[in-house]
Amino acid sequence: MQPDLLPGHRAATVLHDLRHASPLVHCMTNDVVQTFTANVLLAIGAAPAMVIEPEEAAQFAAVAGALLINIGTLTAERSDAMLVAIHAANESSTPWVLDPVAVGGLTFRTRFALDVLTLKPAAIRGNASEILALAGEQSGGRGVDSTDDAFSALPAAQRLAQYTGAIVAITGERDYVTDGKNTWHVAGGGELMTRVVGTGCALSAVVAACCALPGSRLDNVAAACQFMKRAGEQAITVSHGPGSFTPAFLDALYALNAEALA
Amino acid sequence: MQPDLLPGHRAATVLHDLRHASPLVHCMTNDVVQTFTANVLLAIGAAPAMVIEPEEAAQFAAVAGALLINIGTLTAERSDAMLVAIHAANESSTPWVLDPVAVGGLTFRTRFALDVLTLKPAAIRGNASEILALAGEQSGGRGVDSTDDAFSALPAAQRLAQYTGAIVAITGERDYVTDGKNTWHVAGGGELMTRVVGTGCALSAVVAACCALPGSRLDNVAAACQFMKRAGEQAITVSHGPGSFTPAFLDALYALNAEALA
Amino acid sequence: MQPDLLPGHRAATVLHDLRHASPLVHCMTNDVVQTFTANVLLAIGAAPAMVIEPEEAAQFAAVAGALLINIGTLTAERSDAMLVAIHAANESSTPWVLDPVAVGGLTFRTRFALDVLTLKPAAIRGNASEILALAGEQSGGRGVDSTDDAFSALPAAQRLAQYTGAIVAITGERDYVTDGKNTWHVAGGGELMTRVVGTGCALSAVVAACCALPGSRLDNVAAACQFMKRAGEQAITVSHGPGSFTPAFLDALYALNAEALA
């Protein structure tokens, strides 16, 4: 049975809060999606900052509204800086979000991701393969693609949420967002979003921005998913392929309002 | 005398194979073109993955359909990871492609590029200056620009192909693709493509994707060149400058079909 | 009292010189803006090259028309390469430009930026918070945002110009460009430019390109600011948000002419 859809008015409240607070999101993310991630955050009304030198990452994580840890192009050096930032974030009660890109198949990042699970992430956002791998189950993932269905990974996501205390978002054709007990379902978007690099990674940054907001974290994270699904849907209707999708998507995020979320 | 043009129906067959196989391309490329490279691969129907940590690069090169080595922003650390990946690729019969960005003028990358020539690249894609430099001839290159004509570099490309066993593509206003004996000529594109960063680097990624396919590697590499030339030509007709070119180009790659290649 | 506006015919002369010389700009810049910076330089008629390995950076800084040092994602390793490049640039009389991203709040980059101030930058481009921080004054900056007004930072910019010998550009809603004695004022642009990552960083690259040109460096730097303001203004009139702004902005830079600058 499908969990309930996040009501549009809840998403609208979170959007209002996001634009009012314009949270500063400290992004430690992969080399491929830096620009798109920053532009997505700016378009929706948050403030991105990419700070990676270990001393500075610790300083910055302490003052940022939220910290994003994305392991897409993890290196030994970057993983050290991320650990320093996560600890600084925890000491300052800055929420941090994990995007476990392509976890499961690759040894180095899998070890890192499993290690940081114990460091109290506020939220985890991944596709079905990634969530299954984090929860210790078999994954059919191939690189960053997910060959698993989001709904089938929901039980694993619920266990992962219970074990880590994080809100867990499994994204795919439909998204499921759970705190281990309650679950929202988010629909929308479209296949074209998978033909543009970084839509998932940028969503994780928006999840981080929403973790900086007051109110129910479960609702906040589900709202982040809803923003992207709705803007994606709108952009698809006016684009002719993945090239024209990207500007249309950023325009849609910028113009997003309560009406569009209803 | 100009070599023959690659027939459109051959390019169409390669495009069909590419979309059917959707090869996973392990990209170890420069910092400037990561996003565009990934989006070009996604638009045409391949699957990009950027994996750079040495242990992971070795793991991934072994399972990927092809490996791309682009030295545009080479560092000592990255060159070590690339070597590990190339050796793993060779052990697993994963074809790997060299993009020798700005080779010739800069000492560190030139040494690296000459070293890896002996490690059996499946293909090499560069502009005339770069191919001349790899073949040990004088180059008039200035940074990443090519001040040499592609056709005039064809004899050097043929020698390079014979020496390395690679398919060599020299790209410019016209492209020439040779296995040292047979050569295809590819026309199309336009000057605006040189005003957008990464069109050459992204072509090398598409060359890598096509090296993962069955059939004649010479035809496959020439087809990769043809895809970019044709999509570029189509994008130029609907764009007003290099800004609107980029989305139009990705849309054209996404929509590319046998008719457009005829 | 507002300084005089840079006359349009002066900006037009600089644009003409820029397109004629097409200076090669060696960019050592942050991870987030690499592609956009390269595309901005290509669109306006300069030639970008990102070279970061220390040995190569020294080689390249010596032959480039100008060197850009942007500390947005500074690391210990990158700062060493930058120092090598700055020294090579100075030995070869290659002008170099400092973009002190987010200086003030973060210790590592602040130390680096203050150190290199003594190495004779040709120009410094920052927002009000960054210029105040470099001049040793309190800054209200929050990450890369500037919460200070450009005009109020003009006295600090003038002192900084006198101390370093650099042309100093403070950019914001209006830009001020000073050599410590004479000051130009540049108007235009619009709020949407702050919703796209890298417009300031790319401006610094254009400033570097203009520092490679003959004539008054003060005028050249102010002209760089004017190019971006005017192209931004034009792009805003035809765009629907930050997504459609970017292609329109690159198209406007490409099409920029004396008439538009008048």
TrEMBL record, chains A, B, C:
Catalytic activity entry: 5-(2-hydroxyethyl)-4-methylthiazole + ATP = 4-methyl-5-(2-phosphooxyethyl)-thiazole + ADP + H(+)
Any single Pfam family the record assigns to this protein: HK
Entry EC no(s): 2.7.1.50
Family annotation (InterPro entries): Hyethyz_kinase, Ribokinase-like
Positions contributing to substrate binding: 50, 198
Top EC category: transferase
Annotated positions binding ATP: 125, 171
Pathway stated in the Swiss-Prot or TrEMBL entry: Cofactor biosynthesis; thiamine diphosphate biosynthesis; 4-methyl-5-(2-phosphoethyl)-thiazole from 5-(2-hydroxyethyl)-4-methylthiazole: step 1/1
Keywords: ATP-binding, Kinase, Magnesium, Metal-binding, Nucleotide-binding, Thiamine biosynthesis, Transferase
Transmembrane portions of the chain: none
Cofactor or coenzyme needed: Mg(2+)
Gene Ontology MF terms: hydroxyethylthiazole kinase activity
Entry similarity comment: Belongs to the Thz kinase family.
Function (record text): Catalyzes the phosphorylation of the hydroxyl group of 4-methyl-5-beta-hydroxyethylthiazole (THZ).
Name of the protein: Hydroxyethylthiazole kinase
Species whose genome carries this gene: Buttiauxella gaviniae
